[in-house]
Amino acid sequence: MKWAYAVAGLIGMMAVAPACTGNDLTAPSDEPVVRNSVNEFHFQSHYLSPTTRTFTYWWAKYEPHVDVDHTGRIDSGEAHIALRDPAGNEIVGRTDTPRFWLSAGVDSFPFPAMAGTWAITVQLDAVVGVVNYRVISGPSSPPAVRPGRTSPSNNR
Fold it and tell me: Exposure check for the chain: N or C terminus, fewer CB within 10 A?
């Protein structure tokens, strides 16, 4: 009798499987893909069509230097990223607006910034387009220039 349940379950899965096929393995368009690890944070949101949402993440940072790398393109609306230190002070805040081609580079903040758990908030206000942020914490020296590049801002 147990085999009958197994066969029924297998048939049920085969009936649902065609609905799950396709080449799109990404999150829904208004759901970001986030990688949050010690000293490095990535926020990627593609194919937004008027999206208004606020996301807050807790980020472990232990190095004194902070770089905020921004790439993508906003066709309409505004995107805002804010970094707050463990004391709750906004240390980094930037707003990206339409026609702002975000691949412009890296905002570097070489001041000593306290270690600990930081809050990163990304706010999307009626954004259409692509928004990507990368926040990296490292030693206090300026970021290295990759071979063949002219400045750290185009290290991609």
Answer: N
